[in-house]
Amino acid sequence: MQGLLTSPRENLTTETIQRLLTDASSIHVDLGCELLDQSLLVIHDISEFVERQGGSVRRQSFANIHAELSITLTEELDWGQAIIRPYMVISADGDSARFNLGAYYTNAPTRDLSRIPITYEVKGVDILHRLATPVGDAHFEATGTGYLAAVEAILIDQGFTSYIIDPQKITSVLPADRIWPMQDQITWLTVVNDLLAAINYQGIWSDWNGALRVQPYIAPVNRASEWTYDTDSIRGNISPDRSVTFDFYEAPNRWVAVRNNNLADETPEEGNGIFTYINDFDGPTSVAARGGRVITKTIQVEAADQASLEEQARVTIAADKDVATTYSLKTVPNPLHWHFDRLTLNDNALTQPVEVLGYAWELPLDGGDMGHTWRNV
Asked: Which CATH class for the 1-127+225-245+328-377 domain?
């Protein structure tokens, strides 16, 4: 999630923002929008050209391109090149807070010629889409190249200047040459995410300001909860319309991860190129819970070393074990949400609080209820 006190809210208090989003008995929601240059600097504010009704921001963290924007403008832009950043302002009792909602390229919109002025129904796509360009040739990274150095070089070559790279694995280098063949489906995003996966970094994503983020993967179970939803809150921040789905019958309980970039003179074996994990007793998908039934999943991955192989495998294992429970619900608008949010749900219809991972949401820009899809952690 967005930090409570990050720009442009750094002059507020945590208590003020929490009250606006949770405790205020009523709120006012306003919508703004900025036109940005390629460096994400503001060219000018275009809020006067924004229709306040309709529109939304949608985010799906498991998707290849994570975010989409729908918004209606009364001003023509350089469609296909223009970058816009919508923002929401929530106010109550004399206090207000602004929340940026990402940066988006704008495609050719639908024009309503019957209206004066003409309106443009704009579909925006996550600025990450710039990396979705096919490489157009074979791409080569040599033995000894730093993984993060290679990623940064690609970002710069593709015109990105606003990015944040966590240097934790700055010393990790490719143990062998790596070639991506010339294929239409091989994009710069493919190459970047392949490089990051090899050192157990999560896939690259864009934040609420539009900056790209590169950082190590941390399993949701090892992260602190970022927000609590409670059916007993003052404003009733969870809608009565909610559901829980259990679907785990085909989930695996044995995983075999194989490192597919072993050196030519190495035969992969357990502990050196192969990692096997069996869930004997943990939860309803375990071998014991299924009366001895074993369902195996094989994972082929690029990995910098055995430790990275095991780290990547555990990401998949955790996801497969947690797939059993999905929560679909609506809440009051909360524009702090972003990418793979770690949440706590206190629902009086459940026997106890549950820890969940938020991976999909839709925020109406007019202040309507926000839709979510979560899964258990």
From this structure: mainly beta
Numbered ranges of CATH 2.30.300.10 in the chain: 1-127+225-245+328-377
Domain with CATH 3.55.50 in the chain: 133-214
Say which DSSP state 204 is in: P
Helix (H) or strand (E) holding 1: none
Q: Is the pLDDT of residue 376 over 60?
A: yes
Of the candidates 321, 160, 185, 328, the one whose C-alpha atom is nearest the C-alpha of residue 243 is 328
Q: Are strands 341-346 and 296-301 parallel, antiparallel or unpaired?
A: unpaired
DSSP state of 128: G
Rounded distance, CA 87 to CA 121, Å?
17
CB atoms within 10 A of CB 371: 18
What is the reported pTM? 0.85
CATH assignment of 133-214, among 1.10.530, 1.10.10, 3.30.70, 3.55.50: 3.55.50
- Residue 139 half-sphere exposure toward CB, CA atoms < 13 A: 20
Rounded Cα distance, 285 and 116, in Å: 59
**Bigger pLDDT: 193 or 318?**
193
| 308 phi/psi in degrees, rounded to 5 | -65, -35
- Interatomic CA distance for residues 98 and 83, integer angstroms: 19
Beta strands 205-206; 269-270: pairing state: unpaired
Average pLDDT over residues 253-275: 87
Query: What band does 264 get if pLDDT is binned at 50, 70 and 90?
Result: low
Helix, strand, coil distribution of the chain in percent, nearest 5: 15, 35, 45
Give Rg (Cα) of the chain.
23
> Nearest CA to 154 among 132, 177, 173, 182?
132
269 contact partners, CB below 8 Å, separation of at least 6: none
Looking at residue 324, its pLDDT comes to: 67
Strands 95-100 and 110-112: unpaired
Tokens 């600097």 correspond to what residue? 41
